[in-house]
From TrEMBL:
Lineage of the species this protein comes from: Eukaryota, Viridiplantae, Streptophyta, Embryophyta, Tracheophyta
Subunit organization: F-type ATPases have 2 components, F(1) - the catalytic core - and F(0) - the membrane proton channel. F(1) has five subunits: alpha(3), beta(3), gamma(1), delta(1), epsilon(1). F(0) has four main subunits: a(1), b(1), b'(1) and c(10-14). The alpha and beta chains form an alternating ring which encloses part of the gamma chain. F(1) is attached to F(0) by a central stalk formed by the gamma and epsilon chains, while a peripheral stalk is formed by the delta, b and b' chains.
Parts forming coiled coils: 64-98
CDD domains per UniProt: ATP-synt_Fo_b
Protein name: ATP synthase subunit b, chloroplastic
Amino acid sequence: MKNVTDSVVYLGHWSSAGSFGFNTDILATNPINLSVVLGVLIFFGKGVLNDLLDNRKQKILNSIRNSEELREGAIEQLENVRARLRQVEMEANQFRVTGYSEIEQEKLNLINSTYKTLEQLENYKNETIRFEQQRTINQVRQLVFQQALQGALGTLNSCLNNEIHLRTISANIGMFGAMKEITD
């Protein structure tokens, strides 16, 4: 490093025609050098820097566009899911209401069916009671008729003797004969 500094200092001692030379004053030459370097960098690096900045800008814009598209897609999916959720909730409410109404309808049907069955059983019971009453009445009639017939036969047998018996039979035969002649 010392060799480089010595050579710069050594070059500063050359006397030239006065138009070109090295200025060894660091404070005076530094801003000029910096402005020259910056000017060269700006002049030649402007295109590269613009390209880098444009590429970066495009990447950022593409990222923003992609983010917007993803956001819009997510919003659309969210709306679809919300709509589906509303539809499912409505269907669930409809099933719940329909289920309750079907349960109530089945309950009413069961109650009506039970009432009809009870009514039929009541009718069968009443028919059975009437049938049994009629049968009992018929049995009592037969029993009363048999007892009355036995009593009448007993009275007739005790009151009738052979002569009255033969006269009654003759009178009945005569009646049947008269009826036969009328019908012929």
